[in-house]
Amino acid sequence: MSSATPRGRLAIVVGGGPAPGINGVISSVTIEAINQGLDVYGVRDGFSDLINGDTSRVKPLTIGEVAQYYTRGGSMLGTARTNPAKKAADLANVIGAFQKMGVGYLVTVGGDDTAFSGSQVYKHAAGKIKCVHVPKTIDNDLPLPPGIPTFGFETARHHGVELARRLHEDAKTTGRWYVIISMGRAAGHLALGIGKASASAITIISEEFAGKKIKLDHVCDLVVGAIVKRRAQGKKYGLAILSEGILENIGEDGLKEALGDDLKRYGEVERDDHGHLRLGEIEFGRLIKNRVGLRLKELGIKVTIMDKDLGYELRCADPIPFDAEYTRNLGYGAVKFLMSKDAEQFGAIVSFVGGKMVPLKFEDMIDPATSRMRPRLVDIGSENYECARRYMIRLEEKDFADAARLKGLADVVKLTPDQFRAKFEYLVK
């Protein structure tokens, strides 16, 4: 293909999992790029075809076509987790395919894995393809400037809170507990955001363990402790929200240590192209539900526990106004960067700070040792987290220091205060 315009061609590639607002980025990039005199091409299903040099499903995009998708969820270009940087031959095929099409500008949309893929295309194309990445994830775990979310997070949290509030009301009405597993591989922002705004009894995220290896039984006892304490307060229902990143921290060895052959009951341990555990293949919610239920039965407590995975329902929701506006800014900013002199010097991740577009260099954002961006974790030393903890129902040091409190908790499970202390005090140490 030869360029049909003086300024050349721009390609858009979407990678990773869906997030609300992808179509907003595609739409705004396309409109601004065409207005800047570029031809725009949408690449279907990430890099999955391009690693074979296949461009048959790459299609030109027009303003009339993309405008109608601006406020719709999903991705009109699909998405895939294919890693083009895994093999040198795959990366060469991708770059060759772009050069064959006459692509001189590349916009990647995705998380840290897609950002790394884009950075490698930029690096190995040796200046022939200018590249910018638009950061996307409902996990909000990319290291953007403080207070700047990744697009899709606010929409996912909004709809996640709505669902959690309904389950909370169901729990209250029926006298049961719900264990909700929230998406969030590397960080607990989504789980904490949903839990805090839906009045969950307890929200557990991996950051609270301060980098220590998490034990499955420790997590289960935190939930058991919340259930016991709620009963001591006269309430037999509640919501427990857990970040799926806890499962990543427990790891394959930790699961096998705790469950042995029983692990097979909850799925197969698999990894994706980028080396991540495929968390969706393990029924973490059912695992926690069953293990907590068994512990409660041993303590003489009868309670119905339901498990619910929360994430897939959120990823393709129509963006709320925040993300609709935000993605328009990001798409516009991406093209503005590509048209700037800076794009001739470095590839970047686009960000907005104080209403101004700030390009973040790939080399400053991506850790060369891991080929990924350093995850932005929940700051457990912040007032935001402190506030969240203050409103949770958890066993605390004062529950064991106050004799009356300790006896009230022990009475719920028909243990002596000393027996209760021996069983649960380690949770607050």
Largest sheet: 7 strands, mixed
Strand and helix order: EHEEHHEHEHEHEHEHHEHHEEHEEHHHH
How many strands appear in the DSSP assignment? 13
Tell me, what's the shape? elongated
Task: Please tell me how large the radius of gyration is.
Answer: 24 Å
Measured as a percent range, the helix fraction is 40-55%
What fold name goes in the CATH topology slot of the largest domain? Rossmann fold
Give the CATH class of the largest domain: Alpha Beta
Secondary structure category: alpha/beta
Low-confidence stretches: none
Straight-line distance between termini? 66 Å
Strand content: 5-15%
Number of helical runs? Answer: 16
What's the architecture of the largest domain, going by CATH?
A: 3-Layer(aba) Sandwich
Query: How many separate structural domains?
Result: 3
Tell me what the structure shows.
This protein has three domains: 198 residues, Rossmann fold, CATH 3.40.50; 161 residues, 3-Layer(aba) Sandwich (Rossmann fold); 34 residues, no CATH class. The model has no long low-confidence stretch (mean pLDDT 93). A hairpin with a 4-residue loop joins strand 12 and strand 13. The strands form three sheets. A seven-stranded mixed sheet has the order 3-2-1-4-5-10-11, with helices on both faces. A four-stranded parallel sheet has the order 7-8-6-9, sandwiched between helices. Strands 12-13 form a two-stranded antiparallel sheet. 50% of the residues are buried. It is of the alpha/beta class and 429 residues long. The protein has 16 helices and 13 strands. The radius of gyration is 24 Å and the shape is elongated.
